[in-house]
Amino acid sequence: MIEDPPPLAFGPPVERPPEDIVARFRGVPTSFIVDAMGGTGALDWRIKPLVGRSLVGVALTCDCGPLDNLAFFAALADCRPGDVFVAATGAHTGAAVTGDLMLGVAKNRGAAGFVTDGLVRDLDDLEAVGLPVYAMGLTPNSPQRRGPGTVGLPIVCGGVAIASGDIIVGDRDGVVAVPRARIAETLESLEKVKAMEAATLARVRAGLTDLPVEIPSLKRIGKG
Questions:
Q1: What is the CATH number of the domain that holds 128?
Q2: Is 21 exposed, middle or buried (0-12, 13-18, 19+ CB in 10 A)?
Q3: Which one in 35, 89, 142, 198 has a CA-CA gap of 20 to 30 Å to 25?
Q4: Is 212 contained in some domain?
Q5: How many structural domains is the chain composed of?
Q6: Does residue 223 carry a pLDDT above 70?
Q7: Phi, psi of 205 (to 5 degrees)
């Protein structure tokens, strides 16, 4: 006899990095973090802030799939203060994955934000809730709550592989995911990026007129 698969699959308990480590990413531009990771880590450019201007926290993943939010509903029970929900929908744009009520509960549980490659709804009320929300856009269409889905397992959101316990940083440029295994090396590289940016910025403000990079010599086309 073939039994129906369970509507949800759950990952192991989330190993969250210490708060003092997460705090070192606060206020850091996403562009700096991408540079520190060798030019990678940013989610699809269409995922932008709809509520709030920034977020920093620890990823709590859920794969809702298209037209469903059962996985996000279940993930709410696993939320800890400082978590950022990352909800994958396969970039589905036929319905919202959530709205103000569930995100209000998320804020009450101490969540630091919500990120999805899908859509959300209830913008006026989301703004009243105040939880930072990053999404592909808005629609009034409502989702179902049937599954299947996953909670706490690795997902792909906005073209980037994300696991629970990774660090998520968002600003007006977009969202970056720092894999847990790369946090230490990213922080080390980040200090170098900050120093280089600060030094170059000081030179620009002092009147720099040439870019401080080497440009390969180019053969001019045309007369002269």
A1: 3.50.30.40
A2: middle
A3: 89
A4: no
A5: 1
A6: no
A7: -65, -20
What is the rounded CA–CA span in Å between residue 69 and residue 145?
5
The answer as to whether 7 is a domain residue is no
* The predicted structure's pLDDT at residue 212: 62
Check residue 204 and give its pLDDT: 87
Give a yes or no: residue 135 inside a domain. Answer: yes
142-179 in b/e form (b: 16+ CB < 10 A) is ebeeebbbbbbbebebbebebbbbbbbbbbeebbbbbb
Q: Look up the pTM and report it.
A: 0.91
Neighbour-count burial for 192-216, b at 16+ CB within 10 Å, e otherwise: ebeeeeeeeeeeeeeeeeeeeeeee
- What residue numbers bound the domain in which 84 lies? 16-205
Query: Does residue 30 sit within a domain?
Result: yes
Task: Render pLDDT for 100-142 as a digit per residue (tens, 0 to 9).
Answer: 999 999 999 999 999 999 999 999 999 999 999 999 999 999 9
Residue with tokens 């298209």: 66
Tokens at 144, concatenated = 């179902």
Is the Cβ–Cβ distance between 32 and 171 less than 8 Å?
Answer: no
- Calculate mean pLDDT across residues 152-166: 98
